[in-house]
Design goal:
Growth Hormone, Chain: A; 2 domains; 443 residues; 18 helices; 75% helix; globular; mainly alpha
């Protein structure tokens, strides 16, 4: 009997379980979206007088990649072997809440980096935990989990709207408590909450609420109790033999490489569209505009079964990569153009769904049943771990290489460089990848 068979139906009607898990998922991604999107703009404001501000931003975003690499060890050793999943989830979020408050009050790059890394080490394991807890409580995970997971995307959108539109209005009306305003490190003039530490305080409050809420969830007992611990298995490295198959090896390499230019989107796109005056063009904060990407992600996710049944994996992955190229070209030419900036953000739905979701399904198709979890872990390690880390460390160097005037960021050549990188990866993949499989097609 599967774990979800033992738990799901015993905790009440399915709609109640989906609602409770949906709240958990909403808070999980609201927390992340609240600080991750505006952080680049915030750091550029706080450390504006530092010549190495791009390096500071890159290093800050790289903490997520480091935490993503280490996170499987947390989940595997604690939630799988010693403690119930919801308990680990609650404890990590309570510790994370305290660390995010400390991050909000950090005044030098070194302290900020190490505190953010510690907060990331608490948060990143919870991304797998909320999935595990959900699967344990659902009677029909394949049908019900999408109804739970979509609330994560809605949570991310809500965080962007809160930071980009709601907090600025509260600041403008003097409705933000004076005590919190006194903690602000950025200049609140212009009512741009993303330039202050309010997003980190908002994330800390959300983490506290989610930590307490986690203890109210039904039990998700450890499933690997008594089993031997294998670091290779926890990191997905026991699936590395799958890369001997040329098609999967090329896919894995492309997944790693494409995440190098992806890193700069998460780190710099919000700052860029803010600098280009998107708020004046649309009357919306840049964080709110960035949520258009998640909105399109939901739309394209609904269309995925249609596309998967009609196009091969190769076509889907290539369209996803082509969207990367188009996005950065639009950014390069988009200064002062509302439609170009907005279109570039909206393309995130194609970039993410066509490449990452298709890639996850392809990995599940290729891997033998006993290696599927490890294979997914390996791809996560290559993408959000190694690929994003390299991208976050590399993009400040690329920016410096194009800088001609001190203190003036070379936006156009910067975006062109990453467009060219994505295009080269796309062409290489188109030539080398040879697997005609169509996922979702009738067999």
């Amino acid at each position: 009997m599967h774990a979800h068979d033992a738990h799901g139906p015993t905790h009440g009607p399915a709609p109640l379980a989906i609602t409770r898990l949906g709240i958990m998922m909403f808070l999980e991604f609201f927390l992340w979206g609240a600080w991750a999107v505006p952080m680049g703009k915030y750091l550029a404001t706080v450390f504006a007088d530092r010549p190495d501000v791009s390096v500071i931003i890159g290093q800050a975003y790289s903490t997520g990649s480091i935490a993503a690499i280490i996170a499987p060890l947390f989940v595997g050793l604690l939630a799988d072997r010693f403690l119930p999943g919801q308990v680990v989830l609650g404890v990590l979020h309570l510790i994370g809440a305290a660390l995010l408050v400390a991050v909000a009050r950090a005044t030098d790059p070194g302290s900020f980096y190490w505190l953010l890394l510690a907060a990331g080490l608490c948060y990143m394991p919870t991304l797998a935990l909320v999935n595990s807890v959900s699967f344990d409580q659902l009677s029909e995970p394949r049908k019900q989990f999408p109804l739970v997971r979509v609330w994560g995307t809605i949570g991310w959108i809500a965080a962007g709207i809160t930071v980009g539109s709601i907090l600025p209005r509260l600041m403008d009306g003097g409705l933000v408590p004076a005590g919190i305003m006194g903690m602000l490190l950025g200049d609140p003039s212009g009512n741009d909450a993303g330039k202050t530490n309010l997003p980190f305080l908002l994330a800390a409050a959300t983490s506290l609420v989610l930590g307490l809420y986690s203890f109210t969830l039904p039990s998700s007992p450890p499933k690997g109790k008594g089993e031997p611990v294998s670091v290779a298995k926890l990191l997905g490295l026991d699936a590395i033999g799958l890369m001997k198959a040329p098609a999967f090896g090329i896919f894995a390499a492309a997944s790693f490489l494409i995440c190098i230019p992806l890193a700069v989107y998460y780190a710099m796109a919000n700052k860029y569209i803010g600098d280009m005056g998107i708020q004046q063009m649309l009357g919306l904060g840049s964080e709110t505009v960035m949520t258009f990407g998640q909105m399109s992600e939901i739309g394209f996710m609904l269309l995925m079964p249609f596309f998967l049944a009609r196009f091969g994996v190769k076509t889907m992955l290539l369209v996803g990569m082509a969207a990367w190229v188009a996005r950065y070209v639009l950014f390069a030419y988009g200064a002062g153009s509302m439609w170009m900036l907005v279109t570039a953000v909206v393309l995130h739905g194609i970039c993410y769904d066509f490449f990452f979701v298709t890639g996850q399904l392809y990995t599940d198709h290729v891997a033998p049943r006993q290696l599927r979890a490890s294979a997914q872990g390996l791809i996560a390690l290559l993408t959000y771990g190694a690929g994003m880390y390299v991208g976050n460390i590399a993009f400040p160097e690329i920016a410096n290489a194009f800088t001609k005037v001190p203190d003036v960021f070379p936006w156009q050549p910067f975006w062109f460089a990453f467009a060219a990188m994505a295009a080269a990866i796309m062409v290489g993949f188109a030539i080398a990848f040879r697997d005609p499989v169509r996922l979702g097609a009738e067999e």
